[in-house]
Each structure stands twice: as C-alpha cells, then as structure tokens.
Amino acid sequence: MAMIYVLNGPNLNLLGKRQPDIYGHDTLEDVERLCREVAGPAGHEIKLFQSNWEGQIVDWIHEAREAAAGIVINPAALTHTSVAVLDALNAFEGPVIEIHISNVHKRESFRHHSYVSLRADGVIAGCGIEGYALATKRVCTLLG
Ligand code: DQA
Known about the structure:
single chain, alpha/beta, Rossmann fold, five-stranded parallel β-sheet, 5 strands, 18% strand, binds 1,3,4-trihydroxy-5-OXO-cyclohexanecarboxylic acid
C-alpha cells in the first residue's frame, strides 16, 4: 500500500464555481472521490491537498519526499510561473503526473509553457476532472 499525494494549486478551491464553462461543475470533493476510486482497487491511498499559496505547495512536495510514493499535481497558474514548484518536484524521487482540467494548449499562449512539465513523467490536459482519474491510474501503473 503506497500513498499518492494529489496536489492542487491556486483557485482550485473554487472548482465547480469558477468559470464552469472552462472547468465544469464538479468540485474538488468529486476529484477526491474519483482518485480514491482508482487508487483503492490498486491497493493505494490518496491524500488530496489544495492551496492558493506557492510556498505551501512547495512544503507539501517536500513532505511527499517522506510520506508519498507518487504525486498527481494540478499546479494551476503556478504551472506557468513557478521555478520553486519545479525545483521541489526535482527533489522528489517518485512518479509525478501533471494534470490540467482544461486544454491549456487551446487557450492563451502564456498557458502553453509549463515549468512542471520539465519534471513530470506524464501530462494530461483537456479531459476535465476525469484527467485526475487518468493521472492517478498512471501513477499506480508506474508504482507497479
Ligand atoms: C489549469 C490551467 C491553468 O492555466 C490555470 O491557471 C488553472 C487551471 C487547469 O486545470 O486547466 O488555474 O491548471
């Protein structure tokens, strides 16, 4: 039994309420349920986190070094700005899958670049919250 951290960056606490045309009506509780439904049968556990603070995301990645075997991360806007999140992930040794609810490549050009992708073992974008299930499944596969 391994622990998978599911990390969520700024504004994702408003999932289901903010820009539903882009991000849909499902909430982070729905995301948590989805991830658990995938990880459970594979014999793994998930813990879901969300913060609007970059440093808090960095601290949880550091914590994951001891506490988790894999990471699913939607860094939200930090995807496009944060060398700190990239550096923290580079200090984590297990599988990392980056997920975006929307298809960032169909959107503004500033969303096309991801610092996190320099570390991620896989990237999922544009599959809605189902992307979290796919990302969790992939982490389970990589954990073996
Ligand atoms: C997002 C895409 C980012 O560009 C944006 O800043 C977000 C959410 C997504 O899940 O589609 O907050 O990561």
